[in-house]
Specification:
23% strand
């Protein structure tokens, strides 16, 4: 979800709230976000989802 926030917790630090833009650099994912924005404008944001599989 665009603008969705993720909570990062560390035992030694207080809770920090980060946005997607703070977690993932646009240099790496900018094209993906652009395509998702176009799809959201065309089909509605509630109908656009990104599913990613990271394999070692």
């Amino acid at each position: 979800m665009l603008g969705q926030r993720e909570i990062i917790r560390s035992p030694s630090e207080p809770e920090t709230l980060l946005t997607r833009r703070q977690m993932v650099r646009d240099e790496e994912w900018g094209d993906v976000w652009s395509v998702m924005t176009v799809l959201a404008k065309r089909h509605g944001a509630e109908n656009v989802r990104l599913v990613v599989w990271f394999d070692n």
